[in-house]
Fold:
Amino acid sequence: MNIIPLPALADNYIWLLHDRDGNAVVVDPGDGDVVERELRARGLRLRAILLTHHHQDHIGGVAQLVDVWRVAVFAPRDRRIHGATRVVGEGDVIDLGAPRLRFRVIAVPGHTLTHVAFFGEGLLLCGDTLFSLGCGRLFEGTPAQMLDSLDRIATLPAATWICPAHEYTEANGRFARMIEPSNQSLAERCAQAASLRARRLPTLPVTLADELRNNPFLRVDSDGVREWDQRQRAATSVRSERFARLRAAKDGFG
Ligand code: ZN
Ligand code: FE
Structure:
């Protein structure tokens, strides 16, 4: 299976998966033209569309692609997602014949309340829930909901390739280093990301193992994040409150 992040819009990635016979799937096609161009360039046929959540930068190209390809659109139950033909939720399995792919659906509320992720084939397609060195903004969910979603992701096999929907690694890295200035592995990841971005290459996918070492939002129990929290003079050290302070600090950080 080939796994390709297609840059789209300002900083989105549309993940394109295809087999050797030319059968393709796209995840979160925010821009139909970007997908069409790539399908044509690689001689692929679109077989299905997967959607993680309702935001326009993830679904904007769906109508155009369905018009041409008449494919199934797998999406969470949400009236804000138009054109979904297969509603999926926690625990559902998506089994495609061509390309031969099998994904388990994981409900990951936080960024939005109906956000889902797709896990299978050694990949996690996680939309705007987990980014490299960061996590999604809490537009609809509570910090406790997002923390619970990230906790569930953290229990997946460490070798899983994380496939987020945005190239935010460098900006996230600046915040992460402010939180954990003495995390050497994080410093190395930031240097790697800078070098990739200087060549306009994606910093993704990234393994869950890497993120567990480097991403402060997966490290609320680490000494580094606890020490940062203590410097905030927080009155309590309840885990979900620590996460909430971390997320709020990131919002203020820009
Ligand atoms: Zn979003
Ligand atoms: Fe987005």
User: Anything to note?
Assistant: The CA atoms of residues 135 and 149 lie 11 Å apart. The chain has a mean pLDDT of 97. The pocket of zinc ion (ligand 1) is lined by residues 53, 55, 111, 128 (CB under 6 Å).
